[in-house]
Amino acid sequence: MIAYRHTLEGISPDQLKGFFVGWPNPPSKEAHYRLLEHSDAIVIAVEERSERVVGFITAHTDQVLSAYIPFLEVLPDYQGRGIGRQLMRLMLDRLKDFYMVDLLCDEDLQEFYANLGMRKATGMMARNYERQTGEKLVE
Ligand SMILES: CC(C)(COP(=O)(O)OP(=O)(O)OC[C@H]1O[C@@H](n2cnc3c(N)ncnc32)[C@H](O)[C@@H]1OP(=O)(O)O)[C@@H](O)C(=O)NCCC(=O)NCCS
């Protein structure tokens, strides 16, 4: 069974393994934990039997009008079971009172988000690849 939780209570960095698939310089599990801690809203999918985190989604907001969803990921072995869709549904519900909810995605994922009620848009982005690990600038 998969449980969907809205807090990190009872979760440790050791339960966050295997994410950021395909990233050349993925963040450590500690950096992953920090980004979850500092997000305005999170939903994590936890496999109850193993207590392993198998999916997560984060959002940042201005607390007034806008929300942005930077991360949604389900571990490869757990994909295709409806977990990603459920994480998005729960996050969109959390964000339902905001005027705008935005995210960036590859074209082949637009259908996935369209099926959840989102609309296609164009966007822009900047990336500082030297900072991809999320390592702290000052310890
Ligand atoms: C995208 C992702 C979160 C989807 O999670 P998931 O748990 O595998 O998705 P679900 O099982 O909930 O799929 C729900 C529906 O979306 C469809 N879907 C899933 N991934 C899709 C994709 N890449 N493109 C198109 N449709 C997709 C599924 O076929 C399913 O459709 P169905 O109900 O008709 O069977 C997951 O593939 C993932 O983590 N990918 C790598 C990271 C990533 O790309 N994140 C998104 C960043 S914008």
Shape: globular
Q: State the CATH topology.
A: Aminopeptidase
Bound small molecules, deduplicated: coenzyme A
Q: DSSP helix count?
A: 3
Please outline the major beta sheet.
Answer: 5 strands, mixed
How many angstroms separate the termini? 38 Å
- Helix coverage percent of residues? 10-25%
Radius of gyration: 15 Å
How many domains comprise the coordinates? 1
Tell me the strand percentage band. 15-25%
CATH architecture descriptor:
3-Layer(aba) Sandwich
Task: Please trace the helix and strand order, writing H or E for each element.
Answer: EHEEEHEH
Low-pLDDT ranges: none
CATH H-level homologous superfamily name: Gcn5-related N-acetyltransferase (GNAT)
Kindly name the structural category. alpha+beta
Tell how many strands the DSSP assignment holds.
5
CATH class: Alpha Beta
Mean pLDDT: 97
How are the strands of the largest sheet arranged? Answer: 1-2-3-4-5
Molecular structure report:
The chain is built from 3 helices and 5 strands. The termini are far apart. It has helices at 29-37, 83-94, 110-114, and strands at residues 2-5, 41-47, 52-61, 66-74, 100-102. The protein is globular, with a radius of gyration of 15 Å. Strands 1-2-3-4-5 form a 5-stranded mixed β-sheet, with helices on one face. With 139 residues, the protein is α+β, with helices and mostly antiparallel strands. Strand 2 (41-47) and strand 3 (52-61) form a beta hairpin. It has a single domain, classed as Gcn5-related N-acetyltransferase (GNAT) (Aminopeptidase, 3-Layer(aba) Sandwich), CATH 3.40.630. The site of coenzyme A has 15 residues, from strand 4, helix 2 and helix 3.
